[in-house]
Amino acid sequence: MFNKVLIANRGEIAVRIIRACRELGMQTVAVYSEADRQALHIRYADEAYLLGPAPSRESYLRGDKIIDIARKSGAKAIHPGYGFLAERADFAQACLDAKLAFIGPKPSSIAAMGDKAVARAMVARAGVPVVLGTEGEGSLRDEELLGMASQIGFPLLIKATAGGGGKGMREVHNLEAMPALLLSARREAESSFGDGNVYLEKLLEGVRHIEIQILADTHGNVIHLGERECSIQRRHQKLLEESPSPFVGEDEELRQNIGHVAVRAARAVGYVNAGTIEFLVDKDKNYYFLEMNTRLQVEHTVTEMVTGVDIVKEQIRIARGRQLRYTQDNVHQNGWAIECRINAEDPYYNFMPSTGMISNILLPTGPGVRVDTGVYPGFEIFPYYDSLISKLIVWGEVRAEAIMRMRRALEEYKIVGVRTNIPFHQNLMDSTRFLAGQYDTRFVEERFSMESAEEGKDTLPQIAAILATLVAHQQTQRAAHIIQRNERDTSNWKWISRWERMQR
Amino acid sequence: MRYIATIGKHQYLIEIVDEHNILVDGVTYRVDFESISEQPVYSLLLDGQSFESYVYPDEDYWQVLLRGVLYPALIEDEREKRLRSSARSSISEREEYHMKAPMPGLVVSLPVMEGQAVAKGDVLVILESMKMQNELKSPRAGTVARMRVKAGDSVELKQTLLSVI
Fold first, then answer.
1. How much is the pTM?
2. Is the CB of residue B122 less than 8 Å away from at least one CB of chain A?
3. CB B51 within 8 A of CB B64
4. Residues above pLDDT 90, as percent of chain A
5. Domain annotation covers residue B92
6. By CA distance, what is A455's nearest residue in B?
7. CA distances from A388 to A160, A241, B162 (A)
8. Are the beta carbons of A469 and B3 separated by less than 8 Å?
9. Rounded mean pLDDT of A50-77?
10. pLDDT by residue (tens digit) across A346-378?
């Protein structure tokens, strides 16, 4: 049994895990790269040790160093968070070999589910429907993939075998475009996961991405915590999640059916700890297994808000060999939760990543609002890691209340210094299709644009003009004031250059 | 002090009368304007109506983020406006294009060579940032010239990568 946990991650999720450990009265050990010396997870942890230079390959992906630090610090367990080493079976195995508890599934489950092609074959054998694709074929060469493409039919998706988060994923609409797309998909997969293997999957259209949260203990108990709706995506990256799903809505039978299928898929691989089974659901409510994420998800928060289950604490309890504290009968969805992922991306400039120093943050607070973040004013956003800087989560009795609350919280939230996608979420909250819950995985890319969203709105250009003028005026006055003051000693030029340096 | 504020197609003539009074297109408003804790987040009370906004400079514009909408505003005094309208000679369409890094990152590869002819939309640079690979495309047809970076280089924001002439 362990009482000290090493968190092999950074950012908001490292902070989230440290919080769970503290509430359970456990000691925490953080690890960090040279770029993260001032990060929040270092400040909140009981102990912190340097891993290496900023690039992940030399820091957060150094499993050997992490296990070494665990040994030296006396941590008897490792929580991998999401990303980095979370779905690396070899790392999970190395932890067990070093007599460390890995807070996650068994290495064999990670391996089975981590090879997306093997995973699809396994759940298909357990009677779970899967999307047509090249499952169970192992690693294929480009010529073989090109040969199978027409059998599957276009449009199709190239996906990284070791993948997740949309990395190494490409949409293909015809055979001619495929070789170039294979090349770029393999290149991105190689750089993201150190594995350039890809497989093909039929691209279903007009579908929703709905996933089921699973909890399984070492005593054979497996339960699900209901569904999350994750169809609001851009380039296969989730941007907003909600629970319950407005599509499943009142259809309790569908909810229970998908839940039972997810539990069956988890049992099929002898799954232990928290995991998520992702499904694509078409408009006729047919559902297909997409993949299983053998880790804590970014969006676990919305499930926590509606079920009241603290998933991270539950993960730690399971790793300590305890029985689940819940049975399927006492898990209920209460109310509605929405999570907006706040990314350092400029929604007005093709969602390009934005880096730099966060000079100020005004946080939304008040009833029903939760913010999970790893940044604070004075923290610098580097280009080495992903762009998620914060998660804004709200709870409401019903969906309408949750939306109104999210609108209000987004308006309160000000992050100064880097561009963020907060305006995107604000426009989304006003879009009629979102309000009606009528959206699929293509909605953001095909039916939503910042320009048209803002076009139809009641705008306040005159107020904006006044604000900009007052700011410009204030700056002119201040500059004039500084230059006047120098009459006594230094030259005007010196003042101007000082003023210019201040403005940088 | 009189300013001309341009947002989209609209122009507003705004005169700062004194610290608490402004004229907007001839109409007087009472204003109370403060920056929140020295940050570019501003609180504006306009005849008692409360507005809060994030205002930041972006090249020649002020970007005003107000109630979830971004307004790019051009603010000029009368002298600047005269200067600009007299200087507005036509810029050549065949101007050289200098590709600048839209974000800091790592050059993954350059699928083109010096002197190579490219079409509009051809990928010139693949830049990795925040674990995403971004393809930077040519905005016009031309010839690749003055390649200033190579694969493996780290680049800063707005660093010039290459030119299309």
1. 0.84
2. no
3. no
4. 72
5. no
6. B69
7. 21, 14, 30
8. yes
9. 96
10. 998 888 888 889 988 999 999 999 999 999 999
pLDDT in tens, A243-269: 999 999 999 999 999 999 999 999 988
What pLDDT sits at residue B91? 39
> CA–CA separation, A362 vs A63, rounded Å?
36
Nearest-5° Cα angle at A195, A37 to A156: 115
Q: Shortest CB distance from A360 goes to which of B39, B66, B130?
A: B39
How far apart, in whole angstroms, are the C-alpha atoms of residue A149 and residue A171?
12
CB proximity B139 to A under 8 Å: no
What's the average model confidence in pLDDT over A185-201?
87
In CATH, what is the architecture of A208-455? 2-Layer Sandwich (3.30)
pLDDT for the residue B89: 44
CB contact under 8 A, A383 and B103: yes
Report the share of chain A in percent with pLDDT over 70.
94
pLDDT at A495 (0 to 100): 59
CATH code (residue B56): 3.30.700.30
Of A239, A169, A247, A208, nearest to A448 by C-alpha is A239
Q: What is the DSSP letter of A346?
A: E
Tokens of B31: 């204003």
Residue given tokens 């953080």 in the structure block = A30
Q: Which two tokens stand for residue A91?
A: 């790392």
Compute the distance between CA of residue A242 and CA of residue A40 in angstroms, rounded to an integer: 27
Q: Does A466 touch chain B (CB under 8 A)?
A: yes
Residues in chain B within 8 Å Cβ distance of A413: none
The answer to whether residue A424 scores a pLDDT higher than 90 is yes
Q: Tell me the pairing of strands A77-79 and A101-102.
A: parallel
Sheet arrangement for strand A77-79: A47-52, A27-33, A4-7, A77-79, A101-102
Q: Given its phi and psi angles, is residue A220 left (phi above 0), alpha (psi -120 to 50 degrees) or beta?
A: left
CATH fit for domain A132-202, picks 3.90.1150.10, 3.20.20.150, 3.30.1490.20, 3.90.470.10 = 3.30.1490.20
- For chain B, the straight-line distance linking the first and the last C-alpha, in angstroms and rounded, comes to 44
Provide the 10 A C-beta neighbour count for residue A442: 15
Q: Do B70 and B118 reside in the same domain of the chain?
A: no
Shared-domain flag, residues B127 and B156 = yes
Report CB contact under 8 Å: B5, A470: no
- What pLDDT, on the 0 to 100 scale, is given for residue A116? 79
Mean local confidence (pLDDT), A86-114? 95
φ/ψ of residue A128, rounded to 5: -95, 130
B35 has a pLDDT exceeding 80 = yes
Q: Which residues contact B69 (CB under 8 A, 6 or more apart)?
A: A423, A454, A457, A459, A460, A464
**How confident is residue A484, by pLDDT bands cut at 50, 70 and 90?**
low
Please return the burial class of A359, using the count of CB atoms within 10 Å of its CB with bins 0-12, 13-18 and 19+: middle
Tokens found for residue A317: 């309890």
| Reported ipTM | 0.71
Q: Which domain holds residue B111?
A: 97-164
Q: What is the C-alpha separation between A204 and A155, in angstroms, rounded?
A: 8
pLDDT band at A492 (very low <50, low <70, confident <90, very high): low
- Residue A80: asked if its preceding bond is cis (omega within 30°), the reply is no
- Strands A222-234 and A237-243, sheet pairing: antiparallel
